[in-house]
């Protein structure tokens, strides 16, 4: 018992597979049988039928709406039933936001990911995993790397066909799709086909999709390097060019889980590359032009990072309401008051990068470097171009880049 008289580990989070209650360990069976409240999906409660002795309750349509009922039993034994491993794309992560780990006990079953890899002979540590449960299909894009393997957690019976339809026009039509249904249970079924021949129309709602990625020569593969080709993005010329963008990303030095402000984001290219570096990264693009803001959002969706947040306002009007950033990029414009305000908002250790192409902006970044420190770099790029029927190198506008790290 805790100091307050409550049972220390009152919340049991039990993973149950399609093989039902008989496959549960004695400890898991005991936790369910002794619980005053057992809560889970209709399928989970049916799988555990015969074990619960206390009240049984089905999750609300929004699982978060059931949290008060769980918390009202604090200190009394409660069992939450989940699919497989509750902390692998499961309810355990959500519950941890409400109940401290020291008040819970988790008894996992094999996850669907482990079962799928066991059936296919794949190494779980060597596959990409994407959940399409409540998430847009576009987030698949970064994981579609040639000759790699992807496990996809399906939202419902329609997900496999939707994935096949997404792969075909992007140049991945020869990819092999394994549809794995009701893994671990008596109705388990595994079938495979290719994206261009997909025709299954009798798929169970409980399914997982495994993809062996095959890319055609013109497939829309997103490179892993910084500095994506300019034509990867829809733009009107307002874009940080490829070579400058690669240098900019190096100066921004993204780290997992960090937040970027991309001020004057234009096509969104810098923010999008920031988001591509890690799935936990966040970015807010500030853009006063609604057409460019919409374009940035489209680019983000097309490149698999629809989580880009775009704020349609002028920079000075928008910044006060934004979460403090870990890094800030100001591309092609800016004034002293903006630099000061952004630098003040940065978290300690945060990075600021500003690219200047006009004399006015260059003067502003020179003054910022004088006041706030950091480094100044001039970047000049020449590209081969046709001039008067001949070929010659045409210089692009020189960029003066100021970068600084806040102490």
Write up what this structure looks like.
With 407 residues, the chain is of the alpha/beta class. The protein is built from 12 helices and 19 strands. It is globular, with a radius of gyration of 26 Å. Residues 1-6 have low confidence and may be disordered.
Total count of strands: 19
The tally of helices reads: 12
Strand percent estimate = 15-25%
Low-confidence stretches: 1-6
- What does the largest sheet look like? 7 strands, mixed
Helix vs. strand class? alpha/beta
In short:
The chain is an alpha/beta fold. It has twelve helices and 19 strands.
Provide keyphrases for this structure:
407 residues; seven-stranded mixed β-sheet; 24% strand; globular
Write the topology of this structure.
Layout lengths: L10 E6 L9 H9 L2 E4 L1 H6 L7 E4 L8 H5 L6 E6 L7 H5 L8 E4 L4 H9 L7 E4 L17 E5 L5 H9 L8 E6 L7 E6 L12 E6 L29 H11 L6 E5 L5 H9 L4 E5 L3 H13 L6 E3 L3 H4 L8 E5 L4 H10 L5 E6 L2 H14 L2 E5 L2 E6 L2 E6 L3 E7 L2
Parallel strand pairs: 1-4, 1-5, 2-3, 2-4, 6-7, 11-12, 11-14, 12-13, 14-15
Antiparallel strand pairs: 7-10, 8-9, 8-10, 15-19, 16-19, 17-18
């Amino acid at each position: 018992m805790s100091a307050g008289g409550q049972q220390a580990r009152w919340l049991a989070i039990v993973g149950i597979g399609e093989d039902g209650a008989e496959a549960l360990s004695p400890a898991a069976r005991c936790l369910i049988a002794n619980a005053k409240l057992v809560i889970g999906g209709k399928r989970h409660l049916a799988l555990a039928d015969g074990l619960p002795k206390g009240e049984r309750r089905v999750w609300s349509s929004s699982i978060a709406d059931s949290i008060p009922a769980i918390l009202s039993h604090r200190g009394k034994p409660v069992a939450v039933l989940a699919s497989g491993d509750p902390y692998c794309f499961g309810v355990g992560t959500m519950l941890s936001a409400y109940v401290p780990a020291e008040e819970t006990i988790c008894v996992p079953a094999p996850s669907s990911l482990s079962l799928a890899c066991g059936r296919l002979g794949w190494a779980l540590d060597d596959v990409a995993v994407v959940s399409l449960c409540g998430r847009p299909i576009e987030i698949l894009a970064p994981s579609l790397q040639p000759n790699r393997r992807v496990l996809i957690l399906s939202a419902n019976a329609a997900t496999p066909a939707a994935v096949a339809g997404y792969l075909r026009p992007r140049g991945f039509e020869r990819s092999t799709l394994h549809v794995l249904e009701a893994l671990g249970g008596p109705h388990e079924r595994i079938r495979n086909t290719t994206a261009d021949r997909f025709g299954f129309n009798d798929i169970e709602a409980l399914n997982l999709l495994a993809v062996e990625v095959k890319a055609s020569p013109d497939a829309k593969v997103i490179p892993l390097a910084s500095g994506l080709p300019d034509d990867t993005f829809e733009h009107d010329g307002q874009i940080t060019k490829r070579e400058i963008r690669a240098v900019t990303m190096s100066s921004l030095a993204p780290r997992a889980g960090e937040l970027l402000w991309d001020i004057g984001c234009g096509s969104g290219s810098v923010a999008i590359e920031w988001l591509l570096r890690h799935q936990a990264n966040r970015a807010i693009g500030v853009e006063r032009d609604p057409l460019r803001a919409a374009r940035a959002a489209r680019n983000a969706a097309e490149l698999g990072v629809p989580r880009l947040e775009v704020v349609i306002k002028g920079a000075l009007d928008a910044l006060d309401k934004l979460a403090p950033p870990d890094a800030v990029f100001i591309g092609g414009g800016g004034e002293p008051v903006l630099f000061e305000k952004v630098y003040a908002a940065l978290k300690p250790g945060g990075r600021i990068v500003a690219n200047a192409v006009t004399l006015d902006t260059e003067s502003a970044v020179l003054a910022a470097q004088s006041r706030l420190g950091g480094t100044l770099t001039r970047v000049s790029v020449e590209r081969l171009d046709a001039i008067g029927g001949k070929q010659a190198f045409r210089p692009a506008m020189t960029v003066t880049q100021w970068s600084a790290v806040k102490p």
